[in-house]
Specification:
Blueprint lengths: L5 H17 L4 E8 L2 E9 L12 E2 L4 H14 L9 H4 L10 H5 L22 H7 L17 H15 L3 H13 L16 E3 L6 E3 L15 E2 L1 H11 L9 H7 L4 E2 L7 E3 L4 E7 L2 E12 L2 E8 L4 E7 L9 H12 L14 H4 L3 E5 L2 E8 L3 E6 L7 E5 L5 E3 L8 E7 L2 E6 L2 E3 L21
Antiparallel strand pairs: 1-2, 1-12, 3-6, 4-5, 7-8, 8-9, 9-10, 10-11, 11-12, 13-14, 14-15, 15-16, 16-17, 17-18, 18-19, 19-20
Length: 452
């Protein structure tokens, strides 16, 4: 794949340059990924007197949580745990044993946000066993499942769960099972040269204050890792579905499904299983983004991917605060405005005759629906006028179809053939070839006098 056009690169670099200058950031790097490959990188500022590069390390803070979450999902896929397992089944010494693993992953377990004692992000950490020993009943701030409440402590506990199930430190498991297979050798628990130092910028003068960097022990799974733009670009591609042999793409798609929202009915921010979610409307149309933000004293970072468009954005900075919200989506908007993606070329594909016979109009009562054929004997059921339930279905070995999304997700579609004709039964919802076909067993029957 080619890089972006020179005019696009100039517009992208200008946006990064404006942010670095206006927000007074010691150094700032950003990159865009398309179809799994970096198509643009830009950096401003200085690290040890030199411009930052794709191999300059920055601390990525809570993006660390996404690696821990992938480890948990690997354990789930191996059958070593269930997401509905109570935490106490695997960590019997925790004071909140009834919170489920899924609730901790989605920050809906009601756990406290921070660990007891001095603020963990600026102080050395105790081992996990000591951390757990300091937690008490007050660690439960809300009824599990009641609301979204972000919890660093929760991911510290998940890191310990990974360590116990793997009989190895959580970061070693991440390195051996995720980073090495994906070629992310520059992602480490502690910094390696060349790396940016973390700073606070004085609010009223152009001077810096170095921020501390420590090993946070039991809290490390909440925000310990360092990474580079090159490695984070590979991680963005992973979160978008290019998972290699680390995790099934279907599992990552499950992680991207909304489990909680942060900001009300018309949500723009939410959370899945270890992944932050965002919705954005820009020149490229509506986007559903998945990824994570990160902040630690002296550092800020963000990675977002849009699987539907095959595009991702990331940036990292060595400042405690100041980078304005919107840098990430601005870069996506510039790319979409200057170089909108081309739709994939249409080409004919074979359809089995029995599937082809099912396509076309169907009626749920008087409401018209359209059934279309999808690859691999799949089906798509959509309302003709846009008002109604839309779902896709995957063919099963027993001749039925399983709902993949929408209202009918997880439900079964059956083709029922009777002497009077054929109809579809989707978990008791009957679809007929004519509105209220009297020859089909419509639930409740059809008035014998018919339409009049």
């Amino acid at each position: 794949m080619r890089m972006v056009l020179e005019t696009t690169a100039r517009a992208l670099l200008r946006r990064v340059a404006v942010e670095q200058a206006y927000s007074r950031v010691p150094s700032l790097v950003a990159a865009l990924v398309r179809d799994g490959r970096t198509v643009w990188f830009g950096g401003r500022g200085r690290v040890d007197g030199e411009p930052p590069t794709e191999r300059t390390q920055y601390r990525i803070g809570s993006i660390t949580k996404t690696f821990v979450a992938v480890m948990v999902m690997r354990l789930r896929d191996e059958g070593l745990l269930d997401l509905l397992d109570p935490l106490g089944k695997h960590l019997p010494d925790v004071p909140v044993p009834d919170v489920t693993i899924a609730q901790v992953l989605s920050h809906t377990g009601g756990l406290t946000a921070e660990a007891p004692g001095p603020w963990w992000e600026r102080t050395p950490g105790a081992p996990a066993a000591e951390l757990i020993a300091t937690l008490g009943a007050e660690s439960a701030r809300h009824r599990p499942g009641r609301r979204y409440h972000y919890s660093n402590v929760g991911f510290a506990l998940l890191g310990e769960l990974v360590a116990r199930r793997r009989a190895a430190p959580w970061d070693r498991a991440v390195r051996e099972e995720i980073l090495e297979p994906l070629g992310m050798g520059d992602t480490t628990p502690r910094p390696r040269p060349p790396h940016a130092d973390g700073y606070a910028v004085h609010p009223w003068a152009d001077i810096l204050l170095p921020e501390p960097e420590n090993d946070h022990g039991g809290m490390a799974p909440a925000g310990q890792l360092w990474s580079t733009a090159a490695d984070l670009a590979r991680w963005a591609a992973f979160l978008g579905g290019d998972t290699g042999d680390v995790l099934r793409p279907e599992t990552v798609a499950e992680m991207r499904e909304p489990a909680a929202v942060e900001d009300g009915d018309t949500w723009s921010r939410g959370y899945g299983l270890g992944l932050q979610l965002a919705r954005h409307h820009g020149p490229g149309g509506p986007r559903r983004l998945a990824g994570h933000t990160g902040s630690m004293p002296g550092f800020l970072a963000t990675v977002w991917t849009d699987p539907a468009d095959g595009v991702a954005v990331l940036w990292m900075a060595n400042t405690t605060s100041g980078v304005r919200g919107g840098l990430d989506t601005d870069l996506l908007d510039i790319l979409a405005e200057h170089e909108p993606p081309l739709p994939a070329e249409w080409s004919p594909r074979p359809v089995d005759e029995d599937v082809l016979a099912l396509t076309g109009p169907w009626y749920w009562g008087p409401a018209p629906y359209m059934l279309r054929a999808l690859p691999r004997r799949g089906l798509s059921l959509t309302p003709v006028n846009g008002q109604g339930r839309t779902s896709r279905f995957a063919a099963q070995a027993d001749g039925t179809w399983l709902g993949l999304d929408g209202y009918y997700a997880g439900e079964t579609l059956q083709v029922v053939r009777t002497p009077g004709g054929v109809h579809l039964d989707v978990n008791t919802f009957v679809f007929t070839r004519e509105p209220y076909d009297a020859d089909v067993p419509v639930p409740g029957g059809v008035d014998p006098q018919g339409w009049r």
